[in-house]
């Protein structure tokens, strides 16, 4: 991250490559591990990244998290110089029915897709908001719930960018990015894995 401008970014989006394993089946065999899709990092490795150097004095950090790593998310944000503010988004992972996200006749949404979990079966993924200094909220009408189909492993909905841009000002940095977006600085070892998105 040394090449990034210092004290520059007013908003940072992060989807940390948490190191953990999921299990399924009668014999509890490893299944759909994050390590099968990308290189994961330990909390110590991620905490050592110089994120605080890249962040502006007043900066918002939006971090996607998993339920088993809530305390780690707070520790990681603190290591980067941020404090927890609120839960920003909840992505309800929809199942596609016949290629449609909702019933065209009734408008009913399908049952959210059911994933694995240590206790309950997971159907949502949260994104928390952390701050340092006093970043300003731009719009008060940004919705919390995201209803979008599940995509490739760990790939988040594109609408997150529009919501974040409406919520807080930039310059914008996406960490652990796997696609590029106009108006954003993308950082990570998988940038370009998915096609670049066009800003609305």
TrEMBL record:
PANTHER family (alphabetical): N6-ADENOSINE-METHYLTRANSFERASE (PTHR12829), N6-ADENOSINE-METHYLTRANSFERASE CATALYTIC SUBUNIT (PTHR12829:SF7)
UniProtKB keywords: Methyltransferase, S-adenosyl-L-methionine, Transferase
GO biological process: methylation
Superkingdom of origin: Bacteria
PROSITE patterns (alphabetical): MT_A70
Annotated organism of origin: Novosphingobium kunmingense
Residue runs in coiled coils: none
Keyword check for Cell wall biogenesis/degradation: no
InterPro entries to which the protein is assigned, alphabetical: MT-A70-like, SAM-dependent_MTases_sf
Gene Ontology MF term list: methyltransferase activity
Family (UniProt): Belongs to the MT-A70-like family.
Protein name: N6-adenosine-specific RNA methylase IME4
Pfam family, one: MT-A70
């Amino acid at each position: 991250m040394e090449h990034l401008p210092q004290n520059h970014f007013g908003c940072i989006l992060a989807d940390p490559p948490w190191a953990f394993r999921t299990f399924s089946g009668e014999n509890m065999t490893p299944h759909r591990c994050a390590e099968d899709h990308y290189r994961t990092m330990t909390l110590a490795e991620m905490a050592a990244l110089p994120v605080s150097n890249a962040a502006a004095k007043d900066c918002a950090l939006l971090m996607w998290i998993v339920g088993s790593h809530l305390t780690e998310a707070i520790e990681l944000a603190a290591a980067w110089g941020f404090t927890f503010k609120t839960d920003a988004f909840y992505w309800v992972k929809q199942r596609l029915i016949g290629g449609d996200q909702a019933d065209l006749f009734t408008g009913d949404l399908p049952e959210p897709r059911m994933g694995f979990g240590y206790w309950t079966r997971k159907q949502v993924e949260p994104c928390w908001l952390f701050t340092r200094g006093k970043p300003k909220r731009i719009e008060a009408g940004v919705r919390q719930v995201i209803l979008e189909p599940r995509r490739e492993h760990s790939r988040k909905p594109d609408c997150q960018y529009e919501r974040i841009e409406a919520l807080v000002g930039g310059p914008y940095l996406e960490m652990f990015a796997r696609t590029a977006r106009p108006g954003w600085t993308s950082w990570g070892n998988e940038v370009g894995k998915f096609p670049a998105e066009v800003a609305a």
